[in-house]
Specification:
The protein is of the alpha/beta class. It contains twelve helices and twelve strands. The protein folds into two domains: 196 residues, P-loop containing nucleotide triphosphate hydrolases (Rossmann fold); 96 residues, no CATH class. It has an eight-stranded mixed β-sheet, sandwiched between helices. The protein has a two-stranded antiparallel sheet with strand order 1-2. Strand 4 and strand 5 form a beta hairpin. The chain binds iron/sulfur cluster and magnesium ion.
Length: 334
């Protein structure tokens, strides 16, 4: 709730602070238990920073991270000390983007997947290997792989190892940051399907961070669209894809490739003018106005607040009701 994170920009050998990058700016979002929230936006929009703040891998500058525990109590994770955070560290885990650099090449799978079990002392040392073998089976790898090193495996297999490591502590929320983006297209679907199966079996909740709207459509129940640190639109996936209410969402949807090979025409692509706004120098008024084809005078002076325009639909645009934006089907039939 109202979560913000800014990084100082420093200059010179004394590290004088000359400005701030507002990576995440007053973000409100909700992730319901057992659901997948897809967090989308171009690279540099603050998605990863937001994910890391939720894990407290980054310290939020302000705001709350309200976490409903299994016993129903709600705790704000933002102000907790490292020691106070410890019990929650096992509940919220991360799957990283790059299955090549996120696994230590000098460690065996038994060591990699067993590490969180050892660090958090959740099972006796004598039981770690059995647990790891079970975890490997759960992600579709053979338990005999225990003694092998990451370089013996393909990208898809390594990401399975990454998932096994994330699941080792029976988490409730998994933050997956571009978890399959580095993989070959041919193995992406396998890993996404595995993630979906694991979600059902383990009652997992996902924050699925991706720049790929096609994957988000496949994975997410709810979508949150970010632009330079701001949430600009949220809603249930199917509805948001059918009828976007923010010009930025409309443009992102227009770039999703049409999966139907028989489609008469390609999707009409909306090319955004200019570059992504600089998060250290966000424009006045609407942060999207420098690229928005619909911008009007008001957009220069007034920041649009994220307002609820229909049950479950929120948008930060002054004119969304009047624009008649096109969804993925309208764009496809262009
Ligand atoms: Fe475009 Fe104005 Fe809406 Fe911002 S508020 S998205 S500039 S129309
Ligand atoms: Mg990122």
């Amino acid at each position: 709730r109202q979560l913000s994170k800014s990084f100082p920009i420093t200059k010179g050998m004394w590290g004088r602070t000359v400005g701030h990058v507002k990576a995440v700016e007053s973000v409100d979002l909700q992730i319901k238990q057992g659901q997948t929230v897809g967090l989308v936006g171009e690279s540099g929009c603050g998605k990863s920073t937001l994910g890391r703040c939720i894990l407290r891998a980054h310290e939020p500058t302000s705001g709350e991270i309200l976490y409903r525990r299994a016993d129903g109590r709600v705790v704000d994770l933002a102000p907790l000390t490292e020691r106070q955070l410890r019990p929650y560290r096992t509940d919220i885990r991360m799957v990283f983007q790059d299955p090549f650099s996120s696994l230590n090449p000098r460690m065996t799978l038994a060591e990699i997947v067993g590490e969180p079990l050892r660090v958090n002392k959740v099972v006796k040392e004598s039981e770690v290997e059995d647990r790891v073998a079970t975890l490997l089976t759960r992600v579709g790898l053979r338990p005999e792989y225990l003694r092998r090193y990451p370089n013996a495996f393909s990208g898809g297999e390594r990401q399975r190892v990454g998932l096994a490591r994330a699941l080792a502590l029976d988490p409730r929320l998994v933050v997956a940051d571009e978890a399959v983006s580095a993989l070959d297209v041919s193995v992406r679907a396998q890993i996404l399907n595995l993630m979906r199966d694991l979600q059902t079996d383990e009652n997992l909740t996902y924050l699925f961070i991706s720049h790929d709207l096609g994957m988000v459509e496949y994975m997410a129940d709810e979508v949150v669209v970010m632009y330079v640190g701001h949430v600009v639109e949220t809603g249930p996936t199917a509805e948001l894809y059918r009828r976007p209410h923010h010009p930025y969402t409309e443009a992102l949807l227009s770039a999703v490739p049409n999966p139907d090979p028989n489609a008469a025409k390609r999707r009409e692509r909306i090319v955004l003018r200019g570059e992504v706004a600089d998060p250290s120098d966000v424009p006045s008024g609407c942060p999207f106005r420098t690229r928005c084809a619909y911008a009007q005078e008001l957009c220069e002076t007034e920041v649009p607040s994220l307002r609820e325009i229909a049950p479950g639909r929120r948008v930060a645009c002054h004119f969304s009701e009047e624009l008649g934006l096109r969804g993925i089907e309208d764009l496809g039939a262009a």
